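Order emerges. One example.
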Amino acid sequence: MRPVGYWLKVVDRLIESGFEEALARDGLTRRHWQVLNVVHAGPADEQVVAQVLAAFEPSFEGPVGRGELVLLTSRRWLRREPEGYVFTEDGEEHFRVLEERVAAFREAVVEGVSEQDYATAIGVLEQVARNLGWSIDDQGSAPESGTPGAPPATA
């Protein structure tokens, strides 16, 4: 039996490449998708975006998410308002299309896995993370919507 670290790296690489494939036709990456999700949750400024994305880029130094915000704004999918970045009408439309594509990818990720098995796997991984020193305070301020493996019925 291969160790958990092996499977974590394999799954992480496959999730990343699957996301890249699902978003590549729009010239986007998973980080763009994460930024869109942060903004979809409500107006978000650069600090909020950076805080959420930092959980996914712990070794990155610099303004996390700024390049993604610049691209999405230049496409006129987002605009800057006093309260933060918000979707434009065009951005909302593109987000819905991407959301469907990501949902199909997520369904493929968990195909053949019962909700009970999924919940057990997530619980085990969370416990392993806690055993290694992780705490709930270590995550970003908002969950990543559209993450592969999120509970199938609701996310």
